[in-house]
Write a structure and sequence with these properties.
Radius of gyration: 23 Å
Largest sheet: 3 strands, antiparallel
Order of helices and strands: HHEHHEEHHH
Structural class: mainly alpha
CATH class: Mainly Alpha
Strand content: 5-15%
Helix content: 55-70%
Number of helices: 7
CATH architecture: Orthogonal Bundle
Shape: globular
Number of domains: 1
Strand order of the largest sheet: 1-3-2
Number of strands: 3
Length: 174
């Protein structure tokens, strides 16, 4: 189990470094690049759906979409049937320019996958799919943990009568 954990951690960390290298080359952030990949996988979606599959807040997604739109990688499209609904769609010709950075890695992965049997590939698919669900749940749990202290910090502690607020001066020992 420890060897598997270590191998997955290495693979995940290298994936992050690879993605950040691509993002730096393209001039966007690593997280924006990952959201763009979710858009590639999901297709034309609403900001709400993108928030759902990434685990980010809709507010964070608005910022991501703004930056990706400014970079020419996505566009907002109104639903002709319901003008209130807005979809986010990739700009294929511009996203294809990013795809070229992944071609050699994709070839290597296909070669690796071809070395597995159909049964092994089904197991890997199940593992990867359940791993994604586990990571999405962990992201939600982490956000709850981070938000909980913020909520308690927004309440001001009651001040005792007659005491000045602010830092105390150190007392002198007799």
């Amino acid at each position: 189990m420890q060897e598997l954990e270590n191998a997955l951690r290495r693979s995940s960390a290298q994936g992050v470094i690879f993605g950040q290298t691509v993002a730096n080359t393209v001039g966007i952030s690593g997280s924006d690049l990952e959201c763009l990949d979710f858009l590639n996988l999901e297709g034309r979606v609403t900001a709400g759906r993108l928030a759902e599959v990434t685990g980010l807040t809709t507010g964070a997604i608005t910022g991501v979409v703004d930056r990706l739109e400014k970079a020419g990688l996505v566009r907002r499209e109104r639903d002709p049937a319901d003008r209130r609904k807005v979809f986010i769609a990739i700009v294929p010709e511009n996203v294809a320019k990013i795809g070229r950075f992944y071609e050699h890695m994709q070839r290597g992965m296909v070669k690796l996958w071809e070395s597995y049997s159909d049964a092994e590939l089904r197991l890997l698919l199940e593992f990867a799919s359940k791993g994604y669900q586990t990571m999405l749940a962990a992201t939600e749990e982490l956000k709850s943990m981070v938000d909980a202290p913020r909520k308690t910090q927004t309440r001001k502690p009651e001040q005792k009568p007659g005491r000045a607020s602010g830092p105390r001066k150190p007392s002198r020992a007799p």
